[in-house]
Write a structure and sequence with these properties.
Layout: H1 2-22, H2 27-36, E1 43-51, E2 58-65, E3 70-77, E4 84-89, E5 95-98, E6 100-101, E7 104-105, E8 108-112, E9 117-125, E10 132-140
């Protein structure tokens, strides 16, 4: 009888672990894909791994950008056209750029930095999308 309980416990734990593993986000793959999709001539600064639960509305990171430098933000997720929206804000929270153009998301945004300072990179998600993506920030002078 005791062996039956132990066997049942092992089965239940195994099922719980396999369900968790199947639902995990492999954002490392998407971060690498965002780097490989970079436009030639840009140098990688940083990659971002984005993941979260269904109720996650946004993720935000900050980075110091330099005036007179061209930057590019790439985003990749499981959708052919990214379901992840990336928006760049300056230090006063003014929107500088976004990958949401005319109601559709594009994979990359390029922008010239107008002032040296802290900028905020915010990732938001389409309502039915999976919260799993990768992104890269690159520059060129």
């Amino acid at each position: 009888m005791k062996n039956g309980y132990i066997f049942s416990l092992i089965i239940v734990c195994g099922l719980a672990l396999s369900h968790e593993a199947a639902g995990q986000c492999d954002n490392e793959v998407f971060a690498s894909a965002s780097v490989s999709g970079m436009t030639p001539g840009y140098s990688l600064l940083k990659t971002y791994k984005i993941s979260g639960e269904k109720d996650l509305e946004k993720m935000e990171f900050s980075y110091v950008l330099t005036k007179g430098t061209q930057y590019m933000l790439n985003v990749k997720d499981e959708a052919k056209t990214p379901a992840t929206v990336v928006t760049l804000y300056d230090s006063k929270r003014n929107k500088i750029a976004t990958n949401k153009v005319s109601g559709s998301n594009v994979a990359a945004i390029a922008f010239a930095c107008g002032a040296t300072g802290i900028y905020y990179i915010q990732y938001t998600f389409e309502p039915s999308s999976v919260r799993c993506a990768g992104s890269s920030l690159a520059f060129r002078r």
